[in-house]
Amino acid sequence: MENEKEKKDEPVIMKHTIEKGVSDYEEMKDRFGDLFFDLEKLEPIDLSGIYVILPRGTKLKKKSIIWGFSLAKRCKSKVFLALKKSKSVAEEIEKISKAFDVEYEILEGDISDIMENMKKERNIVILPRDTIEPLKDEEQEGPMLII
Amino acid sequence: MEPITIALLIFILTFLLIVTELVHKTLAALLGAFLMITYEFVNYSQIGGLIDFSAIGIIFGMMIVVEVVKDSGIFQFFGIKAIKLAKGNPKSLFIIMIIFTAILSAFLSNQISILILAALTFTLCRSLEINPTPFIIAESVSANIGGITLLTSSTPSIIAGGAAGFSFSEFVIFSLPFTVLLMFSTIIIFLFLYRKEFKNYEARELGELDEWSVVQDKGFFYKSLIILIFTIVFFLISDRLGVTPDFVAISSAIVILLLSGADPDKTLRDIQWGTIFFFIGLFIVVGGLEKSGFLEIMAERLIEMIGGNKIMSIPLVVGVSGITSGIVDNIPITVTLVPIIRTLAETFDMSIMWWCLIFGAGLGGNLTPIGSPSNVIAMNIAKKEGNPISFSEFMKVGFIVTIVQLSLAMIYLLFRFLVF
After folding, report:
1. B 75-134: CB under 8 A from A
2. Does pTM top 0.90 for this prediction?
């Protein structure tokens, strides 16, 4: 609370220069996107698990699963999939798991329990972009990652 | 109230608004210009004569060139090439980043150079698990060094160099030896100040960095490279061809628009018109102050102070322009000091006065984190990246570096004045 107050009271000079500079910086970082990803690949983050949460109705199911396995492979961790299990989905996941040689577990419990478990360790969550209302219409590829 | 007092008050108000950015600095400059016109320090027929269209031409032309070329990924490409030279060694990486920042900011504005380098720096430092603070401060300092290398490198160089009538080649011949000296001295100072940090770092594999990953269109990349080389060569031979730097900048902009296939509407929309109108407003405000007689009085006082001792004028002008630029943005400082320097240069018949202003205003920005817009941006990016650099942390290094750099500038200018 105090920190917030301090932040608000902090005098901001050159507000416009700062705003423009920071937004241009974001643009510049996008430019390096692929390269930064390569760098991260070389130094994998130490993660306990990759949680792929797939709400019903997402059209990015397969893409999100592949992202999850690909990241888990890079970080040498396990994939946890929170989804409605069906025979075809289970077969698909098994195939991907074998291709990536990464362990997985399908979680079918309550989503709030899954979230609680997830917070206990250093994990990463993958959410399909089309299930997040403000990001739904963005053309950008790839799911959404929340650490 | 005396007219001279009113003009001075308008100038101070404009300056305060620019420095604090309580309103956008373009609006602040235009408001100041409006007040100068309202109080009849400047009338409409005089406006054209007050604006340095040559400087505006260079800024406008180079903005178009950079706007088109930056999308080719060329600057990022060479950034990655430079990083690969370090082979994951933090100390080598640090030295390379300092040199590369100076080179980059010689061709681009200091702000764009910092944006590119900061984006690379934070990621690299995270990968190498090293502290990014010395890198960011050194890059800010180095961007200001690059800004005094070429006539087109930074706005103070364009304005003061243009007012002095320097050609592009004349400028680079004079400044290049000094910027090389500055760069090496800066590297030594930083390595000394951060010696404990660098001692603990070990080289780490950065792996296969692919510089082509930032290039989306190889054809456009090569075209941009050729156009950039052509522009530099054109600048270098411009005095032999009898053309001015603003002509070169604008013709390069036209050529790049023709050859690149870039949409002129989009390019013209994307360039920083605010900056151009900021300069127009600023030229009118300073023109009004000049017409009120205030700047003449200031110049006379300076001449009296210097007396017959011409040599004294060099450290004095370097010091004044350097310290004032360390406290406020160096662009308005340069525009304000140009009429005073012109009087000094003519009175003492010393064209070296212009260099005192260029070096002083260019390097003084390193004194504090608010000394130049690129410093302000770098500090805020650092904060955003979760690695805030405090005012005092910057000052601890910036103060030492600026004092050394300004002293070197004085020595170099005295040497040039006495020997050549």
Report:
1. 76, 80, 111-112, 115-116, 118-120, 123-124, 127
2. no
